[in-house]
Amino acid sequence: MRILAETVRRGSFSSAAGALGLSQPGVSYQIKRLEEQAGFAVLNRHRHGVELTAKGRRLYEIAERAVTDIDALMREYEAMAERPSLRLHTDYAFSSLWLIPKMHAFRLLYPEIDIQIVATQRLRQEDVGESDIAIPFGEQGSFDANASILLREEVVPVCTLDYLDRNDLLADPKMLARARLIHLDALAPAPWFDWNRYFDGLGLAREPAGHEGDISFNTYSLVTQAASENQGVALGWMGLIDGLLRSRVLVKAGPALQAPHRGYWLVPPRSPDKQSERLVSWLQSEAGK
Known about the structure:
This protein is of the alpha/beta class. It contains 10 helices and 12 strands. Strands 6, 7, 8, 9, 10, 11 and 12 form a 7-stranded mixed β-sheet that branches. Strands 4-3-5 form a 3-stranded parallel β-sheet. The longest helix has 29 residues, at 54-82. The protein starts with a helix and ends with a helix.
């Protein structure tokens, strides 16, 4: 199809051969084979070049459209391959509650950059590529010196206003020990505040009996959804639940506790480039760093 299209466009076998990087006899042979397979003459040859026959014109129109469409598609693929692309690894909670609500602002600043968000409950270093950015949760000593704290851990009990009022939770922190608690499952020991650590921090003990039955989930989005549906009290991570607090979907139900050396860390690429540096700088700015 391309040989036919170029021959007709340029009016001769020799001109088409030059454009395609082929020999003139090679182009002539391919057109001859096409005519043999079609069973009719596609081109009329004359001393000054070639011209289409009536049947050849119908075939050329199809071939020319196909070649043009293929060329346009290949240019599109090439442009996509040349677009800068970044991969960012983090967990479900950070990606859904902190990152995604803010990403539109980054897209407005850098619409030419493609971003792939890789969310996983357990981020492994071996899954992070040389040019990838990672935002894992952990202790300060777990990361290299080039990592910087993005969001320090601070938790506060949260529930709906209705659940708060019905259980009078703010009157006495001990009331929390009697409430239905919503847990985030983790491989023991949990690398973050869980309810046991929270009660230890307040110097409280929870009796084995005398409280409502608890509920547990393996992802934090389900924890916040259950709390929003009036099903109990959850630990809310400041920075992640700010939007839910502002909208009053959830309210604070107890004192806050902090872990200054624990939280979400920004781990820049081992092989940075201009695009990844832009994303790192933007993430730090959004976190107020």
